[in-house]
Model the fold of this input.
Amino acid sequence: MAERDEPKKGIFQVFKDIVYGMSSHEMTRHAVRSRASMEHLFILITMGDLLGVPILPPYYSLRLLPYVTPQISTWKRRMLRERDITDTIG
Amino acid sequence: MSLREVFERHPERRYIMFGGKGGLGKTTLSATCAYWLARQGKRVLLFSVDPQASLSDIFQQDIFGKGAVPIVENLWAQEIDADRRIKEYQDEIRQKILDMYGFDRVPEEIDSYIASASAEPAMEESAIFDAVVDIVVKGDYDYYIYDLVPLGHALYYLSMAKVYDEWINKITKLREDMGQYDQVAATLRRQDKVEEDKILQELQYIKGRINTSSQILTDKQRTAFFFVLVPEEMTILDTRKAAELFARFAVPISGYIVNRVLPEELRSGNIPTYLKNRIQLQEKYLGDIQNSLGSEIMAYVPEMERDVTGLAMIERLARQLFEDSK
Done:
């Protein structure tokens, strides 16, 4: 738990966090989510071979492989999982 | 204009390519041309982008995968060992993954991807393509002479540059959009700065490499592309088609070289009917070539009485091609 190690927050900081939570947290979440979708799209375009979808010659996509290595397993799960109607909600 | 005049009038054309169907003498002519330029005091690198290269055979010296090997003064020759390059490249990628994440070994899934990606046929072409960029970027030589692969491959090589370029543009755009979302999230959270996108840098690097190569191939100032053909019906037809395709890719065609012309003195002697027919046929095709290409023909190269291998033979051909045909 990272929060426990943090120094005690001042009243001003608490107030700032509350305002952030009320106003822009939702927007941030949306931005981060869109970013994650694009990340997966990016990996699909460059590393399509991993799912058996060869999209482009692999010489240069190998160059990018080290950077996306940690995301590969979540990406594969997301791409290959079954989908239903609830996916479109939220 | 003769081949010699082309080189004398356009010293800025440093990238010389010979293209044509397989087995027409592209390697022979590239070697001859490289040899002659080296004799004129220019520093020349002759290199082969063909996985089944034959420079070793023509110079009667094993140069495969040994880098730029000196042949005579001012002349170096190189055959790219694509397999070894791919292997080194794979190891480099594996090492990078280990270094970046402190793994003891590359995750199996990733490792099998690296292995399978390298088995694809496009891998070899791309590796050679990339090696060529390394060679020409260094710029150590006055002339770079490409011993190209047969026509189909050469076209593939050219179109690949175009496809790569467009592909990279698209994903670079996507990556930049992703950066904007990062920026939005960071601003909303009041973080000062976003981490630099290493992938974007990598993409820009790749784009730079591809552009270097395709720019050279289509550069009217610095590139001279010669078509090699022989006086035979099929070759003439194929060459015409190929020339149209190359024009579509904006490759500057500097001229044509007609190879394997049966020497005229044969006609005067008492020769068998078979040979007489061949000579008559050839005359007809030479006429066709003259009519359709005319002033674009740079040289007629006679059929030699033996194979052109070894320096003595190359020198003889160079004299024919550059000195006598004036």
Observations:
- Residues 25-47 of chain A form the longest helix (23 residues).
